[in-house]
């Protein structure tokens, strides 16, 4: 920032005012429409379900002013959280979501790393096109891409048709409605998010290091393990965060591809809200999910910021 | 490892990787031209599902709602995202900066069910009628974060001395920004707008939470149809959407690339002439 050889003229009052407006506009927007709603979720998670519109109580009436606010606080309690802790469904759903997301992230890394590696090794004039075609599916609808797998995976779908015609299996494989289908769905939908940061760190890799290692008699697998992997660790961390965090709360994939054995918290919350119309329990589910996610999200933000500073 | 075997490895991996990415979409497109209603049986070529989609009022209404939301939300998200990117990259430390960058990065990974639920409860608490306006507000909020990340990655590589030169020559900061900075970061602004637009076209979860009975977007409509089963009609609709979006994205990327090449040529010429 401070690389001026000559000092700039002192900022005028008008410029200061402009700068403040520049900060305040997006700041205010995010405070109002991103942060404040979480406060409301927290409040409703501490409320009671009521047969009313909106279906919870107490509700805050602006006309009551400060005394209304006080009596509102007195009526809040942790009943919904007690309910969540008593029913093993919720604990199992959180654990199972973490497990499914972790497994799927690992699978995405195992599939994505070789692809990113090959893209970074491709002739330079090819790379922009490869990158573009890697990103293109990401631009097209997520819902449609998940939907495309239903026709392939179902019992009388294309995959079983091919397997049975080729004589590989006699009976159709039961994939749709299992966790395997959910893994396929997550790997498929989130792959560009994994490949992009991996590719960025692989492309920056200094080749002379690998050549030096080879000259000194280091076998390729060992130089991969000792040089390539540690140097691309930032890409691996970023890619895994971009897949792991959102897939914990994934709804569309477990709903369309998973079955009764697939227990994921995003779907539990959706059913609680739209199916059972229980807004207070759905809010409590969301608050706990948010608490689980806070640590990985903060780590991800730190990581992104550090990378941003390294660039400038 | 010899170069030949490593090249073979690269080609195989790239072929498999891209096949995995594109085959499902390709199969979906092929079966949209299937005469038969069954997904595995090829009953001959037909475009009847396309005429069925184009004659379906519910789909067309939903598409119109979706386009309106996408257009307004992506435009406002790009403006707010550009401002946020300038704050992240240009404005030095200020109080509350960590919170600000947290609010920019967190929505990128926040599960949609949480964002959707929190916005819905927010709108209910403020007694705002849910519909096309609330979906648009929700879409602006998450799209502006994506937009600001795209634009700030361009801004950090931008050489500030050009802008300073303009100001030394008497430009006001605003004018220097408009005539020097903006044209240079324009490709990033275009891709930020396009990304916001497609994110809005795509969104099912947040739109489901924040909409009311008055507004149904295309993903909501498609989702309720998919729950009833795979139909060639949905395949046809999906094919139309995928082709339109792909054409838009490819055209935009070719255009920005060409503009950049032209600029690089002009710059080289200017250096030669000076």
Care to give the gist of this entry?
The complex is a heterodimer of chains A (312) and B (274). Chain A has 14 helices and two strands.
Which key phrases capture this entry?
heterodimer; A: 312 residues; MetI-like fold; two-stranded antiparallel sheet; B: MetI-like fold; 11 helices
Chart the SSEs and their pairings:
The complex is a heterodimer of chains A (312) and B (274).
Chain A: H1 13-45, E1 48-49, E2 56-57, H2 65-75, H3 79-86, H4 88-121, H5 127-139, H6 142-153, H7 158-165, H8 179-203, H9 207-215, H10 220-231, H11 233-248, H12 252-256, H13 265-275, H14 279-311
Antiparallel strand pairs in A: 1-2
Chain B: H1 3-31, H2 48-54, H3 57-89, H4 97-109, H5 112-125, H6 132-155, H7 160-168, H8 173-202, H9 205-210, H10 218-226, H11 232-273
Helix pairs in contact in B: 1-11, 2-11, 3-6, 3-8, 3-10, 4-6, 6-8, 7-8, 8-11
Which overall shape of chain B is indicated by the principal axes computed on the Cα atoms?
Answer: globular
Strand order of the largest sheet of chain A: 1-2
Report how far the terminal alpha carbons of chain B are from each other.
49 Å
Under CATH, the topology of the domain at 77-277 in chain A is which?
Answer: MetI-like fold
Q: List the secondary-structure elements of chain B in sequence, H or E.
A: HHHHHHHHHHH
**Count of DSSP-assigned helices of chain A:** 14
CATH architecture of the domain at 68-229 in chain B: Orthogonal Bundle
Radius of gyration of chain A, taken over Cα atoms and rounded to an integer in Å: 25 Å
Largest interface: A-B, 94 and 93 residues
**Series of secondary-structure elements of chain A, N-terminal to C-terminal:** HEEHHHHHHHHHHHHH
Averaged pLDDT of chain A, please? 84
Oligomer: heterodimer
Proportion of beta-strand residues of chain B: under 5%
Tell me the name of the CATH class of the domain at 77-277 in chain A: Mainly Alpha
Helicity level of chain A, as a percent range?
over 70%
């Amino acid at each position: 920032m401070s690389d001026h050889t000559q000092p700039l003229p002192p900022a005028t009052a008008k410029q200061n005012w402009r700068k403040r407006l520049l900060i305040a506009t997006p700041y205010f927007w995010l405070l109002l429409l991103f942060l404040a709603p979480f406060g409301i979720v927290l409040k409703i998670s501490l409320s009671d379900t009521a047969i009313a519109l909106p279906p919870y109580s107490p509700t805050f009436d602006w006309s009551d002013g400060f005394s209304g606010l006080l009596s509102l606080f007195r009526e809040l309690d942790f009943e919904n959280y007690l309910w969540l802790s008593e029913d093993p469904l919720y604990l199992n759903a959180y654990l199972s979501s973490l497990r499914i997301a972790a497994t799927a992230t690992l699978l995405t890394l195992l599939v994505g790393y070789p692809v990113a590696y090959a893209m970074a090794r491709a002739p330079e004039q090819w790379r922009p096109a490869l990158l573009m075609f890697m990103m293109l599916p990401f631009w097209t609808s997520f819902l449609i891409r998940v939907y495309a797998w239903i026709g392939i995976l179902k019992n009388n779908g294309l995959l079983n048709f091919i397997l049975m015609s080729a004589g590989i299996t006699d009976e159709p494989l039961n994939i749709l409605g299992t966790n395997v289908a959910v893994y396929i769905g997550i790997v498929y939908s989130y792959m560009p998010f994994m490949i992009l940061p991996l590719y960025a760190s692989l492309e920056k890799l200094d080749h002379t290091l690998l050549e030096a290692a080879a000259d000194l008699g280091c076998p390729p697998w060992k130089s991969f393990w000792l040089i390539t992997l540690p140097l691309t660790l930032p890409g691996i961390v970023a890619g895994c965060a971009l897949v792991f965090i959102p897939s914990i709360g994934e709804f569309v994939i477990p709903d369309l591809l998973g079955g009764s054995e697939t227990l994921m918290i995003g779907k539990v919350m959706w059913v609680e809200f739209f199916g059972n119309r229980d807004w207070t329990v759905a809010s409590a589910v969301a608050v706990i999910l948010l608490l689980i996610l806070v640590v990985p999200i903060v780590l991800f933000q730190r990581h992104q910021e550090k990378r941003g500073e390294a660039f400038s | 490892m010899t170069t030949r075997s490593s090249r073979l490895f690269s080609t195989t991996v790239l072929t498999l990787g891209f096949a995995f990415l594109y085959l499902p979409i390709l199969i979906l497109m092929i079966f949209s031209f299937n005469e038969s209603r069954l997904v595995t049986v090829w009953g001959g070529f037909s475009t009847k599902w396309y005429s069925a989609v184009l004659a379906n009022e519910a789909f067309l209404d939903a598409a119109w709602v979706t386009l309106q939301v996408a257009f307004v939300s992506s435009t406002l998200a790009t403006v707010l995202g550009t401002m946020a990117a300038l704050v992240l990259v240009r404005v030095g430390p200020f109080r509350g900066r960590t919170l600000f960058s947290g609010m920019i990065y967190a929505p990128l990974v926040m599960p949609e069910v949480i964002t959707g639920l929190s916005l819905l409860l927010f709108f209910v608490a403020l007694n705002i009628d849910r519909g096309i306006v609330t979906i648009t507000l929700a879409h602006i909020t998450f799209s502006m974060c994506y937009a600001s990340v795209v634009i700030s990655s361009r801004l950090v590589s931008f050489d500030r001395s050009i802008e300073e030169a303009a100001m030394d020559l008497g430009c006001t900061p605003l004018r220097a920004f408009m005539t020097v900075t903006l044209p240079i970061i324009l490709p990033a602004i275009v891709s930020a707008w396009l990304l916001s637009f497609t994110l809005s076209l795509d969104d099912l979860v947040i739109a489901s939470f924040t909409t009311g009975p008055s507004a149904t977007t295309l993903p909501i409509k498609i989702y309720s149809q998919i729950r009833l089963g795979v139909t060639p009609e949905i395949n046809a609709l999906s094919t139309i959407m995928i082709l339109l979006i792909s054409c838009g994205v490819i055209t935009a990327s070719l255009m920005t690339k060409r503009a950049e090449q032209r600029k690089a040529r002009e710059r080289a010429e200017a250096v030669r002439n000076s």
